[in-house]
Structures are given as C-alpha cells and as structure tokens.
C-alpha cells in the first residue's frame, strides 16, 4: 500500500545569482589583462610595437656602445696636429682614474651600486614617496640607468615613439627604456666596466665630455692626479653641468661640492675630519677650454675636413664622432718652413707697401690711372654680412644705421707687430679700412710624382683671415700662364729652338660676330727686332712673341692644353689667354698643372689624405696616388727644360733666385714669374727635381696694389717667398730633399733644344720686368718717380 501523498505543492527553485558571477569574471578578466599587459609591456617597449614606444638600443649597440670620440689628424711625418669633435672626449681606463672619483660618484649618486642589478627598488620607492608627499626623496636613477640615458640617448626626439609625445606617458616610457637598458648593461658588463663607461660618457660642462677632458679643462691635469676636493667638484657638476660649473657659478659649485663631500663622509669613505678639511679648501681652477677643432689654426685643416667629411658621408662615418685617425700628406717641417717664409717676407713687403702709399698721401685702393677710388670703403662695406645685418636691424632708420657703422669700440685686430694681434678702438668702417690695407699671400708645395701636398699656406693668419688663397681664391695668372702657350706649340710640331721675331704685331680675330684687333705691348713698349728662340722668349717673358705663338697654335688649343694638364677653372679662348687674361685660376690648379711637366706628362691628382683608420688603428681606407697621362713624355721634359730658361737664359725673369743659397751641387731650378695688369697680382711658379711650388701675392681687391715694377712685379713679391722657403728645405738634413740637376730624359728627344743664347752663368743677371700691361710705367720713368731697371 502506497503512502498517502501530501496535498502541498512544491514551490519552484529560485533563479541563479548571475550578477556576482559576471562581476567576478569581469574583475578576473581585468586582472588577467592587466597582468598580461604588465608582463608584456617591457617586451612591447623593447620591440617598439607599432612604433608606439620609439627605438631602444639594439643588441649590437649594447655589446659595442659607440661613445662619441674625436677624430685625430696627423701629418705625414707623424706629428699630431689636431682633432675634430662635437663632444670633446678622450676615453681612459678606470685604472687611469683617481679612486676618489669612484668613491665620490658612488656615495653621491648610487650608494648601493655594488648590490643592485641596474635598478634600485629602494631608491625608486624613496623617490616616488618623496614626490607623493611633496618632499625630496632623492633621485631614483642608478649609475647604470644614467649611463643608459647618456650612452644611448634614450630621450632624443628620434628615439621617441607615438606615445612618447604624451607628457606623463613619455616620461614613463623613457624610464622603462632606461630600466631595461640598465639591466642589459649589468648582464653584459662588470661593475668596473660600467663605471669606466660612465666617466667617459658624461658631460662636465664647458664642452668637456669624459673625465680626461674634464680634468684637463678645469684643472689642467690628468684623471689619475685628481685630489679629493677636485674629484668631489667634478662629480658634483654631473647633476647639472651648467648650474654647478665652478668657472661661472663658483658659489653654487662649492655648495654642491660640499654636499658630495658630506655624502662621502656618510658613506664612510672619508672621516669627519677629512670632510671638514676638504670643505674648507677653496676651489682653485686652471681653466682652459679646447675648441671643436683643436690644434693649430691652419688653412689646410679646412681642406682636410672638407675632404674627409665628404668621404664619411659616402661611407657611413662621422668625422666628429667616430674617433677616426686621419693621416695627411702634409710634412710638418715643410709646412713650418712655408709658413715661416710667408710670414717673414710678407711682413717686410707690407712695410714697403705701407710706406709706398704713405709717401704718396693716399690709400692703396686706386683706379687704373692711380687715383684713389672715392667712397671705396663705404661701397665695400655694403657687400659685407655685417652691413646686411645692421641694415636689417635698422630698416627705415638710416640715421641709426650710419651711427652703428661709425660707433667705435675696442677690437682685437691682426698686426705684424708683437704677437700678431693688438686691441684698437675702431668703428666697423675703420676696421674694414684697416684690413683692406693688407697684402695677402697663398702658397702650396706638391710632390709632382705622387700628387701629395706637402705644404699649404692659405694666407697670413687663419685666426683673422679665413679666406684660403690656395684653393678658394682665384686670380689672373699673368705670365705664369705663358708656359701653356709654349706647351701647345711644343706638342704640335714646334721646338724650343724655333724662332719668332720680337716685333709689334696686330692680332685680328672675331668676337661675337664682330671683327676685332689686338695690339699686344711689351712691358717696355719697345721691340728688339731680335729673332728669338722660343726658350729665350719664354725665359724673358716677351709678350709679342707669346701673342704671335698663341695666334699660330690657336687660343682655343691653349685653353684645351691648360685644362689637360690641371687647370679646372673655366677659361675663355681669347687671343690674350697666354698673358693670363683668359680667366681666374687658383694656386692649387697652377701647382697641379706645372707638376705635369715634372712628372713626365702624367697629371697627378692632388692628395691631402693618405689613409684613414678607425679608433682601434685599423685601416679603413688607403688613398693611393692617381695620375693620368695627358701629354707625351718628350713634351713634358722639354717644358721642364723651357722653365729652366728663367735661370739659364740671359735676362730670364727668375734671375733674382741667384741671391739665395740654392746653387751648390749643380742644382737646377725652373720657374716662371707673373704679374697682372696694374700689379694687382704677383706670382711665382717654381719647379725642382723633387717639388713644385706656387706662390701668389696680392691685395684682397684687384684695386689694391703697387704702382710700379720695382715693388709690384711677381719677381719682387712672390719669388722671394719661394727663394727663402727653398733655402730652408735644402738646409734641413732630415728632409729627403737634395740639391741636384733635373733627371735626364727617359725617352728620346727628337726635337732640337740645345740653343741657349749664352752660356749659363752662376751669378745674377739683370732680369726682365715681367708684367702684362704697365699703363703708368713710362710716365713714372719720365718723371723720375721710379728707378730705371737695368733691363730697360
């Protein structure tokens, strides 16, 4: 029998409680997402996910950190002559640093340095707590983190991702990179290696990067010789190199130094007595700042830097960062003799020039009639950058502009007296007029067989005159261009013994479709009627013969041959090209061209750098001599023989060289003087069996010059520099430059060339005046203002 069923009905079960479950799952999901993001965040930062975080140091950069290091420059004979750098830094090992540096740094910046692995949690917590409470909890960065920031520039704009531009987010990302990089550095380097990297990386102010340069800049000593007080001062500067610079903020620097000393006492590396003693010591500096281009200020350094910079750009190097070792072709001894010769002769010549114009009561800027050019300085001033700046500043206020141009103030200017500079009270107009009075010079010597440039003097003083008269400056070459006419002739059937009569001629030609005529004058306006050999005519620089020969060979061909042998400037094919009026050329080009004659017809490519090494001394690139045959060897030898005529032919224009000690051991020198119209430019091109040298002398403007040949021709302005220079070279037993004759020809000479007008004499003959046009010469002779040369 079944049990009776209850009459009550069962109520339905309550619905499940869903909201708490959803909430818990949501919270769990957020937690998981947050935890995942936290764990993934460092990976995303290091890989620069979607370019959000910016670049981090690569594995290669971590293992081979590229500390910016100056590039060193050396001469061919191994003399260190300077450095190129953005950050003046010379790394040294930790063993070459004072132990007080290490103790001061650790005590001040990272007292638990030896105990952490790149990140100090206690320091971070202290810094965060200090920031939260409005106090100063100290910095949270370890030495390793600071190294990461300095070494890899983690906060540079190029290393910032899309999120890095958000203020707070950017700071967090930068800190994260520094933490990650610090941990990686600790994994790869020892504690001592990190300290060494740190000291060689950080900035100390006054353009000093790295402890070696800092010690030299502030104390004129080496890192291993730093005292406790000096070490504390330098370490104190690291917090803010500008605010704590002892040179410019001595009080703030001393306060910071004393704090470092206190920290050293707290860390137990100094006793209380030592702390007190060192804090009582005043800061005494021996301050000397090195420039970004350290070393002697010379013109060739600019040419070297230009060449190396171009090479670096093409090959992925940085001359100011990569610590390259650059070996130049310059010989320090020859360079010294060249600079000495220019200084000695230009100082004397300037005195003559000043007296010349003082006696005439004029300034040296004159027109073709010898009259002083009115308002010359005012006109020249308007072409200067200084005038343009002042005109822009005082636009619409000519009274203020005029006042600024006449306002006097003390200026340090170049002078030939004393140490090379002096302070004068001058206005901008006074200063310009002062400098316009100077004659300038450019000089270069090259080995014609290798193309190696051995000496390069671009001017009087690079500190005051940056314009380089070797390569940058270009002027008419005067009679030093005549050899290219004779070159064209010799290479097209003529011989040195062929003859042309010295007589007045008229050259007919067509210019722009119009018939023209040119009647070239000899310097003396006289013609001997002599049927001269080509060698004699070139030696005496006879204009009438050169003009006739130019017409015979074609002035277009003269331009082509000049370009062949080394003249790169544009030349106008005009009848007077042989007298130097076809275009402006540089000393650099002329030396290159004359070298082709000595180098048996091969045009050498001028070289300033022989090799470049990396910071470890490994050769990156070697520059070998390059040359190209452009004229036959016979023609080249004959041209050298022709150039010897300036000394060997009677009345040759190089006769003044007999006054120098150059004539032992059957020594032979070839050369050519040159002077342009109105004596604006004086040239001398000299060739020996070993070297080719070019010298130019002239004013900054063509209107600044002498008025007569006795002072102004190339034989009296440029040639003495060459003679003085060569004397010094021959007298130096350490130089492999010996007196002696030119070598005999290496090929058969088929053309007649032995036809000297008279036997060579070992004494000075009266040389011919050598200029293109002398408009005032006869008038000056007639009124007795100019002594009559022996050759007239």
UniProtKB/TrEMBL annotation:
Annotated metabolic or biological route of this protein: Cell wall biogenesis; peptidoglycan biosynthesis
Principal location: membrane
Keyword Cell membrane appears in the UniProt entry: yes
Keywords linked to the UniProt accession: Carboxypeptidase, Cell membrane, Cell shape, Cell wall biogenesis/degradation, Glycosyltransferase, Hydrolase, Membrane, Multifunctional enzyme, Peptidoglycan synthesis, Protease, Transferase, Transmembrane, Transmembrane helix
Catalytic activity annotation: [GlcNAc-(1->4)-Mur2Ac(oyl-L-Ala-gamma-D-Glu-L-Lys-D-Ala-D-Ala)](n)-di-trans,octa-cis-undecaprenyl diphosphate + beta-D-GlcNAc-(1->4)-Mur2Ac(oyl-L-Ala-gamma-D-Glu-L-Lys-D-Ala-D-Ala)-di-trans,octa-cis-undecaprenyl diphosphate = [GlcNAc-(1->4)-Mur2Ac(oyl-L-Ala-gamma-D-Glu-L-Lys-D-Ala-D-Ala)](n+1)-di-trans,octa-cis-undecaprenyl diphosphate + di-trans,octa-cis-undecaprenyl diphosphate + H(+); Preferential cleavage: (Ac)2-L-Lys-D-Ala-|-D-Ala. Also transpeptidation of peptidyl-alanyl moieties that are N-acyl substituents of D-alanine
Keyword Iron-sulfur carried by entry: no
Gene3D superfamilies in the record: Biosynthetic peptidoglycan transglycosylase-like, DD-peptidase/beta-lactamase superfamily
Family named by the database record: In the C-terminal section; belongs to the transpeptidase family. In the N-terminal section; belongs to the glycosyltransferase 51 family.
The protein, known as: Penicillin-binding protein 1A
Organism for this UniProt entry: Hymenobacter glacieicola
């Amino acid at each position: 029998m079944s049990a009776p069923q209850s009459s009550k009905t069962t109520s339905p079960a309550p619905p499940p409680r869903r909201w708490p479950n959803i909430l818990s799952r949501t919270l769990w999901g957020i937690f998981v997402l947050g935890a995942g993001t936290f764990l993934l965040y460092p990976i995303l930062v290091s890989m620069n996910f979607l370019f959000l975080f910016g670049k981090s140091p690569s594995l290669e950069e971590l293992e081979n950190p590229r500390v910016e290091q100056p590039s060193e420059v050396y001469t061919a004979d191994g003399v260190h002559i300077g450095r190129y750098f953005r950050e003046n830094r010379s790394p040294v090992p930790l063993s070459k640093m004072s132990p007080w540096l290490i103790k001061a740094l650790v005590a001040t910046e990272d007292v638990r340095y030896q105990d952490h692995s790149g990140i100090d949690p206690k320091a971070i917590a202290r810094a965060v707590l200090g920031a939260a409470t409005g106090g100063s909890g100290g910095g949270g960065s370890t030495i390793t983190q600071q190294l990461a920031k300095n070494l890899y520039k983690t906060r540079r704009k190029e290393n910032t991702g899309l999120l890095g531009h958000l203020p707070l987010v950017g700071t967090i990302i930068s800190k994260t990179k520094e933490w990650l990089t610090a941990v990686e550095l600790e994994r790869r380097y020892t504690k001592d290696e990190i300290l060494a990297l740190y000291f060689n990386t950080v900035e100390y102010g006054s353009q000093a990067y790295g402890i070696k340069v800092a010690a030299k800049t502030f104390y004129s000593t080496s890192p291993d010789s730093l005292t406790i007080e000096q070490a504390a001062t330098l370490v104190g500067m690291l917090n803010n190199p500008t605010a704590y610079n002892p040179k410019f903020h001595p009080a703030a620097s001393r306060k910071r130094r004393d704090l470092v000393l206190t920290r050293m006492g707290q860390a137990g590396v100094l006793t209380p007595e030592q702390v007190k003693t060192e804090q009582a010591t005043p800061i005494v500096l021996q301050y000397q700042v090195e420039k970004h281009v350290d070393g002697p200020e010379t013109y060739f350094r600019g040419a070297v830097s230009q060449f190396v910079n171009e090479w670096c750009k093409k090959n992925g190097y940085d001359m100011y960062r990569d610590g390259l070792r650059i070996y130049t072709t310059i010989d320090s001894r020859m360079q010294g003799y060249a600079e000495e010769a220019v200084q000695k002769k230009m100082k004397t010549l300037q005195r003559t020039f000043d007296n010349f114009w003082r006696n005439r009561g004029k300034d040296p800027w004159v027109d073709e009639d010898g009259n002083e050019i009115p308002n010359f300085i005012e006109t020249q001033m308007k072409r200067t950058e200084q005038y343009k700046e002042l005109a822009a500043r005082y636009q619409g206020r000519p009274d203020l502009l005029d006042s600024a141009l006449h306002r006097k103030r003390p200026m340090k200017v170049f002078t030939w007296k004393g140490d090379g500079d002096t302070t004068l009270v001058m206005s901008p107009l006074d200063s310009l007029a002062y400098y316009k009075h100077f004659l300038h010079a450019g000089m270069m010597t090259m080995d014609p067989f290798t193309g190696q440039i051995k000496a390069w003097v671009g001017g009087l003083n690079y500190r005051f005159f940056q314009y380089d008269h070797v390569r940058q400056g270009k002027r008419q070459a005067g009679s030093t261009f005549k050899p290219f006419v004779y070159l064209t002739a010799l290479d097209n059937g003529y011989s040195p013994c062929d003859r042309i009569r010295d007589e007045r001629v008229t050259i007919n030609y067509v210019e722009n479709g119009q018939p023209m005529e040119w009647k070239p004058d000899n310097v003396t306006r006289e013609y001997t009627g002599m049927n001269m050999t080509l060698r004699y005519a070139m030696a005496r620089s006879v204009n009438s013969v050169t003009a006739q020969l130019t017409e015979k060979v074609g002035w277009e061909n003269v331009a082509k041959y000049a370009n062949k042998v080394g003249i790169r400037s544009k030349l106008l094919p005009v009848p007077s090209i042989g007298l130097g009026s076809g275009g402006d050329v540089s000393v650099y080009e002329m030396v290159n061209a004359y070298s082709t004659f000595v180098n048996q017809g091969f045009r050498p490519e001028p070289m300033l750098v022989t090799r470049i090494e990396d910071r470890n001394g490994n050769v990156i690139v070697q520059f070998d001599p390059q040359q190209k045959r452009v004229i036959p060897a016979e023609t080249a030898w004959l041209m050298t023989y022709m150039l010897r005529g300036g000394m060997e032919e009677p009345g040759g224009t190089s006769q003044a060289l007999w006054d120098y000690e150059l004539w032992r051991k059957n020594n032979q020198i070839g050369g050519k003087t040159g002077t342009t119209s109105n004596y604006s430019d004086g040239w001398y091109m000299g060739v020996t069996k070993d070297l080719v040298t070019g010298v130019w002398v002239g004013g900054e403007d063509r209107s600044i010059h002498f008025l007569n040949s006795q002072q102004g021709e190339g034989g009296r302005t440029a040639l003495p520099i060459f003679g003085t220079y060569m004397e010094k070279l021959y007298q130096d037993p350490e130089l492999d430059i010996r007196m002696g004759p030119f070598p005999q020809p290496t090929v058969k000479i088929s053309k007649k060339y032995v036809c000297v007008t008279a036997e060579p004499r070992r004494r000075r003959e009266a040389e011919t005046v050598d200029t293109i046009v002398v408009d005032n010469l006869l008038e000056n002779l007639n009124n007795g203002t100019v002594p009559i040369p022996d050759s007239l």
